[in-house]
Write a structure and sequence with these properties.
The complex is a heterodimer of chains A (about 450) and B (about 450). Chain A is an alpha+beta fold and about 450 residues long. Chain A folds into 2 domains: about 210 residues, PmbA/TldD fold (2-Layer Sandwich), CATH 3.30.2290; about 220 residues, no CATH class. In chain A, about 20% of the residues lie in helices and about 40% in strands. Chain A is globular. The model of chain A has no long low-confidence stretch (mean pLDDT about 85). Chain B has 2 domains: about 210 residues, PmbA/TldD fold; about 230 residues, no CATH class. In chain B, about 20% of the residues lie in helices and about 40% in strands. Chain B is built from 9 helices and 22 strands. In chain B, the strands form 4 sheets. In chain B, strands 1, 2, 3, 4, 5, 6 and 7 form a 7-stranded mixed beta sheet that branches. In chain B, strands 11-10-9-14-21-20 form a 6-stranded mixed beta sheet, with helices on one face. In chain B, strands 8-15-17-18-22 form a 5-stranded mixed beta barrel. The radius of gyration of chain B is 23 Å and the shape is globular. Classes of the chains: A alpha+beta (about 450), B alpha+beta (about 450). Chains A and B meet through strand 2, strand 3, strand 4, helix 5 and strand 16 of A and strand 2, strand 3, helix 2, helix 3 and strand 16 of B.
Chain lengths: ~450, ~450
């Protein structure tokens, strides 16, 4: 991997060459250097150890006031850019904008950088895999499958404002899956943990997972009612949110979210500055400082998220430009065109603890996880998802797992009709999304289900 | 390779790849976005102490460090659990496979490409009866990779891919309803509908009918599955269960069923990399010469898809299905062109057979539980079947069931096979495959 100074130096050299030799006076250079180490265990054997290194450079530039985009491997970028104007054929249609001013004095976000990860030492992966295997061997009838991924991302952004932003961030992702094979039935449960540092122990997450797996092996009787009170876990709520309300929060769709009515219980913030949250970084992918953005306050829409290209009627840049490719191990990639995405969404919590709510409520259903996101429509808010990890709650107690069933509703209607946000919140990263959501448990009076 | 050999590895292979890609997006015929990407680098796979490791790098000057790291990991791991990975025997390959497009996008100027997109849009517009936003997404890719191994194999492959995806968005009350369809495969611009505009007629017909489509009434339907939906069900739910890495890691409901009758005799299932589609290749990512594999022979599960490692673990030979899209990733056991073998039924006979039921249009993806074969798949649209004839359109809906149960309910398979571009994601790695297959009938399909 290239050294930090080499990356910064290359960013400057590429920009200089674009300006001086190719005569592109309005340009932006984005360099990403990404390393992963991946290990873990699979059926009590070590998983294949992988070390993935990606280093590339993305360039946006204006020529005759038209915007173009191309990217190249870092090794050859200085020669490849000589043909940049012939490679790019069609401009990106958008209102002309200025590449943002990169300020040199950015506030450091602490705790996003772990030296043990950044050193990419293979012994760390080995130690984590080994500790997971030890835990696994102490459990009877349950087999653990775990992937541990340590990531180091370095990015340098330079544009024709003549300054450079450079940042190093680390992540530790642990995906665990437990499988229980009982007589004539199989149950499994999954957990995903993202943090900026290597956790001190994986034991507690394994114990939680084992509890979930065993709980799922107790089957409840099928549901016969078609409308029931439902409690959505933070994960289930986040999955529905991702494909209904999230696309409406972006500046491209600002008009439509303004027309929606929300309950005054509903508060939503995007915050890329909280050190403990997974997607906090000093800069977004255009070099703009991340910030805290009040999106919905007591049910009132305040502002949407933007980047340089999509800043309509607002001078404030919220620092939400990210380069994202879905269905990738690490979705941030220089190969993607920068677009508007949330960083860390924070849904306001309520006052009632989950236990208290459960003991006070009549029989209901607790949905922990869902699948089938493609059947959500952000224009209308309607969703139809399958609850694949759900439990019947009777007299305040979880009475058993339910077979997969469909849940149908309209998220905008639910958020309008006095939704009940509970006290406990969790940070989750919905499947195939680049952002995290800190969400509470969330209850509805009545939700339609199809057993 | 020299560095790896000096370190005393049991086996090493290196893939050196280059991908040049252009993506053009147009809305209602006007080009609004273009991205260009060149990506190149090296993927190094090592077997040492019975442990498999993989590194990818963009610059060969980092190779030595990565190889040393991989060997150090192998030593650590084998002290923990004795490494048992080995490769099944495979012939040493030496080959150069170069497929050139008839019309190479690299040689076309912007005016010609623009004209093709505008003409296509004008043609679609002419037949559209409802207000629709049409998005045209054109992906143009030149892919090449050189494979070398410490056993002496050396294979170079170069393929051009083109994919055109049309998406139509129409309003239905307060909702937006959309339908998309992809065209293309391995080749140049000549295989896209630019010069065969009438290939888009079926796309236009679905769009025209979406505003009056109704919601499905949940229940069990005798159904005809379109080629795309039959492929989605076959590939997503059944195909992945036949990948030997999934079998060995307990993620397959087909594990333990080899040699058993799992479907009616009309059902045979094949994986064949030699069909000219996005799933085409002549050598897989470990240099094994491609071959077709008969996986289900008249209802009997006969084989799994293998890499050299899974083949060694299960005492067989590789089926040449160890694949990765680029040098950046460790290959996995993947399908190529995976399909139900076509049988003797004409399309009208399938509808006649069902008589009254549901035609299930193109698939939209979905999910399945690998240990049990339980699945939930989304269909983009459907049509009623009344008295053996196609009737009114139905809006997007979901199919669910258990794969072995669904396989047992296949009654008829059509005599025509359709090849479309497909993609598959496994463990966050996307790869091109052929979406290939005939139409099938499935009785009592659960729909909601």
């Amino acid at each position: 991997m290239y050294q930090d100074e080499e990356i910064k130096d290359l960013a400057t050299k590429v920009l200089q060459k674009l300006e001086q030799k190719i005569n592109l006076t309005e340009a932006e250079v984005y360099i990403q250097s990404l390393s992963h180490m991946l290990g873990g265990n699979e059926y009590r054997t070590p998983k294949v150890y992988q070390s993935i290194n990606r280093e590339g450079c993305a360039i946006r530039f204006y020529k005759n006031d038209n915007l173009y985009f191309a990217c190249f491997p870092l090794r050859t970028v200085l020669s490849d850019i000589e043909k940049i104007t012939s490679i790019t054929t069609f401009p990106i249609v958008c209102k002309k904008f200025e590449f943002p001013e990169i300020k040199l004095s950015q506030t450091e976000i602490s705790k996003i950088y772990d030296k043990r990860i950044a050193s990419m030492n293979e012994e760390e992966i080995y130690a984590l895999s080994y500790s997971m295997s030890n835990t696994d061997e102490n459990m009877k009838d349950i087999i653990l499958d775990g992937t541990i991924r340590l990531s180091l991302e370095r990015k340098a952004i330079a544009n024709t404002t003549q300054s450079i932003a450079f940042e190093k961030s680390t992540w530790c992702d642990i995906d665990l899956r437990a499988l229980y094979r009982g007589y004539n039935m199989i149950s499994s449960a999954e957990k995903h943990l993202t943090s900026r540092q290597i956790p001190s122990s994986v034991t507690s997450i394994v114990e939680d997972l084992v509890d979930d797996t065993v709980r799922r092996s107790t089957i409840s009787k099928n549901i016969s009612d078609l409308e029931l009170p439902v409690i959505f876990s933070p994960m289930a709520l986040s999955q529905i949110f991702s494909f209904t309300i999230v696309p409406k929060l972006l500046s491209k769709s600002e008009e439509s979210i303004k027309n929606l009515d929300f309950s005054e219980n509903f508060n939503l913030v995007d915050d890329g500055t909280v050190p403990g949250l997974p997607n906090s970084t000093a800069f977004d992918d255009e070099g703009v400082s991340q910030s805290r953005t009040n999106i919905i306050n007591n049910g009132i829409f305040m502002t949407s998220l933007n980047n340089s290209q999509y800043t309509f009627g607002s001078n404030e840049r919220t620092g939400n430009s990210f380069r994202i490719k879905m269905f990738e191990v690490f979705p941030r990639t220089y190969q993607a065109y920068p677009d508007v995405f949330p960083s860390n969404l924070i849904v306001g919590e309520g006052d009632i603890p989950l236990d208290e709510f459960l003991s006070d409520s009549k029989d209901c259903i607790l949905i922990k996880s869902t699948q089938g996101y493609m059947t959500a429509d952000f224009h209308s808010g309607t969703f139809k998802i399958s609850a694949n990890d759900a439990y019947r709650v009777e007299k305040g107690e979880i009475a058993g797992a339910l077979p997969t069933f469909d849940v149908i509703g309209n998220m905008y209607q639910i958020l309008k009709d006095d939704p009940i946000f509970l006290k406990e919140r969790k940070v989750v990263r919905p499947e195939n999304t680049p952002y995290s959501i800190l969400a509470p448990f969330f209850a509805t009076e009545k939700t339609t289900i199809f057993p | 390779m020299k560095i790896a050999n000096e370190q005393g590895t049991s086996y090493t292979d290196i893939r050196c790849g280059k991908i040049v890609a252009k993506n053009i997006i147009a809305k209602n015929g006007l080009i609004v976005n273009e991205t260009n990407c060149i990506n190149s680098g090296y993927g190094i796979r090592i077997l040492s102490e019975g442990i498999e490791t993989f590194s990818s790098i963009t610059d060969p000057k980092f190779a030595e460090k990565e190889i040393k790291k991989a060997i150090s990991v192998s030593k650590l791991l084998t002290n923990w659990k004795k490494g048992i990975a080995e490769l099944a025997e495979a012939p040493v390959s030496e080959a150069e496979v170069i497929r050139k497009p008839k019309v190479d996008w690299v040689n076309l100027d912007s005016i010609e490409i623009k004209e093709k997109i505008t003409n296509l849009n004008s043609y679609i517009d002419e037949f559209l009866k409802v207000e629709t936003e049409i998005e045209t997404d054109v992906q143009l890719i030149n892919w090449s990779e050189r494979f070398v191994s410490s056993e002496g194999s050396e294979v170079f492959q170069e393929f051009p891919y083109v994919i055109l995806t049309l998406t139509g968005r129409v309003r239905k009350n307060s909702n937006q309803v959309k339908y998309y369809k992809s065209f293309g495969g391995m080749g140049g611009l000549e295989i896209l509908p630019f010069d065969h505009l009438d290939n888009t007629i079926s796309f236009i017909e679905v769009i025209n009918n979406l505003p009056k489509a109704t919601l499905i009434k949940p229940g069990l339907y005798n159904s005809v599955l379109s080629e795309d939906m039959a492929w989605t069900l076959n590939h997503e739910v059944f195909g992945h269960s036949l990948e030997a890495d999934n079998v060995l890691s307990g993620r397959s409901f087909s594990s333990g069923l080899q040699g058993m009758k799992i479907a009616p005799s009309i059902v045979s299932v094949i994986d064949d990399p030699y069909i000219e589609s996005l799933g085409y290749y002549e050598f897989d990512s470990e240099g094994v010469k491609g071959r077709g594999t008969l996986l289900v022979d008249e209802g009997i599960l006969t084989d799994f898809l293998h890499s050299r490692i899974t083949a060694a673990a299960m005492g067989t030979e590789s089926s040449s299905n160890y694949r990765a899209y680029s040098f950046e990733y460790l290959p996995q056991v993947r399908m190529s062109n995976f399909f139900f073998e076509p049988k003797d039924f004409k399309e009208e006979e399938l509808l006649e057979h069902v008589k009254n039921g549901l035609y299930i249009g193109d698939g939209l993806g979905g999910s399945s539980e690998p240990q049990t074969g339980d699945y939930n798949l989304d269909a983009q649209y459907g049509r009623e079947i009344n008295n053996g004839e196609l009737g009114n359109y139905v809006l997007q809906f979901q199919l669910s069931g258990k794969m072995l149960d669904s396989l047992s309910k296949i009654d008829c398979i059509s005599n025509k096979i359709l090849a479309q571009p497909g993609s598959c994601v496994k463990n966050n790695q996307r790869i091109f495959v052929g979406s290939i297959g005939p139409k099938i009938t499935v009785s009592e399909m659960r729909v909601s």
